[in-house]
Design a protein that fits this description.
The chain has helices at residues 8-37, 40-45, 51-57, 61-86, 90-107, 109-117, 119-147, 156-174, 182-198. The radius of gyration is 20 Å and the shape is elongated. Helix content is 80%, strand content 0%. The chain contains nine helices and no strands. By secondary structure, the protein is mostly helical.
């Protein structure tokens, strides 16, 4: 295997740092101004980068917004999935995952502001796009837990879609409360699903 070209490591680190700086600035601007009022110029002003550098990473405002939404969604799903897989009981499968998901949404004030300020845009532009990955992962986890005898046999397709839809709807509601009610949302979602997954 040949050695990497000189400077490749530093160049890659610089590219990663630039992208991270743009994303952080985008999160701040969208949180403060909302998607409609935000501009690429506003985002660039919050970095130490030249304005042209932005376009090396993102072609427009919509693309950086999409990247932020996708990163937030991916991390939220990952935390919920770890909680489901670590759960010791059927109730924990539901409760621990919802708590992990809702807690992630509110743990970072900038992210909380981003989600709360842009709920309409997120729903309008990404509502249907966010569902498939979460439903697919939850379906896999449900099937595996049912196969191991840890959960009652249910219609996995209906259950996965319903659980994801409830999580997204309650997540959107809880970020608008002051303070955000993670435990209330968790208790409500758990009450809806835990009994049915525990079996007779």
């Amino acid at each position: 295997m040949s050695a990497p070209a000189a400077g490749t490591g530093r160049r890659e680190r610089t590219k990663a740092a630039n992208r991270a700086a743009i994303l952080a600035a985008g999160l701040e601007v969208f949180a403060a101004d909302g998607y409609g009022a935000a501009s690429v110029r506003d985002i660039v002003r919050r970095t130490d980068l030249a304005s042209g550098t932005f376009y090396n990473y993102f072609p427009d405002k919509a693309s950086i917004f999409r990247a932020l939404v996708e990163e937030v969604a991916a991390e939220a799903r990952a935390r919920a999935r770890v909680a489901r897989r670590d759960a010791a009981t059927p109730r924990g499968f539901v409760e621990d995952a919802y708590r992990a998901f809702f807690s992630f949404m509110v743990e970072d004030p900038a992210m909380l502001a981003f989600v709360a300020r842009n709920l309409g845009t997120i729903r309008e532009q990404f509502g249907e796009a966010l569902l498939p990955a979460g439903v697919s992962e939850l379906r896999e986890d449900l099937e595996a837990a049912i196969a191991r005898g840890e959960l009652a046999t249910v219609d996995v397709d209906y259950c996965a879609h319903a659980m994801i839809a409830v999580g997204l709807e309650l997540g959107q509601r809880l970020v608008l409360r002051d303070p955000p009610d993670v435990e209330g949302a968790t208790a409500f979602a758990t009450a809806l699903f835990a009994g049915g997954l525990s079996g007779p």
